[in-house]
Amino acid sequence: MRKHYSRKKQRHLEMYFRCLSSFCNDSLLTNYYLLYEFHPIERWLRNHLLKQALVLWDIKDAASLKERIRWLLDDGGRMEYKELHHQLLALTEAARRRYIETAEDDLKHAKRKVVHTFLPQLPSGEIAAFGGGWAIYLSRVGLAYGYLTKEEAWIYKIEAARYIQQHYSSWGEYITAIAAGNIFKSSDKQMTRNRPIINMASSFLGRSTLVKKVVWEQDLQPDKAVSLPKQEHVSV
Q: Are the C-beta atoms of 176 and 118 separated by less than 8 Å?
C-alpha cells in the first residue's frame, strides 16, 4: 500500500499524521515532534514519551500494541461517551446541572461531568478523534520500537486518518473532540491533569501558518498508479 504513494506525498501525509497525533502528549517537545518523527534510539531513554505511551496503554509487545490500536479504531470509548451524552441531552440545562451536582457518589460521576462540560462545544457527542489520534500516535511509537513494520504502521495511520475525516470537518472540531476524549479517559474530576492538552490545543489553533500549511481536508488516496499483474500472451 505504502509503495503506491510517492515520497513527496508520504512526507506530506506524515506531517499530517504528526499533527493529528500531537495532542496525545503534553511534552515540552511537542513542537519538535510536529516536525520530526520518533527515532528508534529513543527507546532507550528513561521515562521518555514512547515509554510513557506504552505504560499508559499497558503495551508490552507487538500483539498488545495491535490489540490496543484495533480497540481505539473500533470503539475507543465512543459508545460509553455517547451513552452518557444522550442521557444528559435528554435533560433540560437546569436539570443537568442539578443532576451533576447531586450525583457525586455515582461511579460514573467523573466521566459524566466531563461530558456535561463539553456538551456545548461537542453537541454531537462524537469522540472518534480520541481513538483515531491515539491509533496514529501508537502506530508511530510501535514503528520506533520495531513492533510494526513501515507498511503496517502506514496502513494503520491511513485507516485512522480516514476514520477521523469521516467524523470531523475542521481542525477546530477535531481538537475539541480529542481534548474531550483525553479528559474522559483520565476521569479527572478537576481536569487539572489535562490542562496542558487543552492549552496546547488552543495554542495549535492559534498557529494559523501551520494550520494553513497542513490543511484539514488532506487527500489520503495513493498518487501512484497501481501496477496490474502482467498477463501472459495466450496464442490461439
A: yes
CB atoms within 10 A of CB 8: 9
pLDDT in tens, 113-146: 899 999 999 999 999 999 999 999 999 999 999 9
Distance CA 47, CA 135 (A): 21
Given the C-alpha cell 487539572, which residue does it identify? 192
Report the distance separating Cα 10 and Cα 76, nearest Å. Answer: 26
- The whole-number average pLDDT for the span 149-155 is 97
Q: pTM of the full predicted structure? A: 0.86
**Cα 174-161-137 angle, rounded to 5 deg:** 85
All residues at 6 or more sequence positions from 112 whose CB lies less than 8 Å from its CB, including other chains: 84, 87, 88, 100, 103, 106
DSSP 8-state secondary structure symbol assigned to residue 33: H
Q: Report the sign of the C-alpha dihedral through residues 8, 210, 122, 197, in that order.
A: positive
Angle 176-179-184 (CA atoms, 0-180°, nearest 5)? Answer: 125
Q: What is the pLDDT of residues 170-200, one digit of tens each?
A: 998 998 999 899 989 886 544 445 555 555 5
Residue with cell 435533560: 91
- DSSP class of 157: H
Angstrom distance (rounded) from CA 102 to CA 121: 23
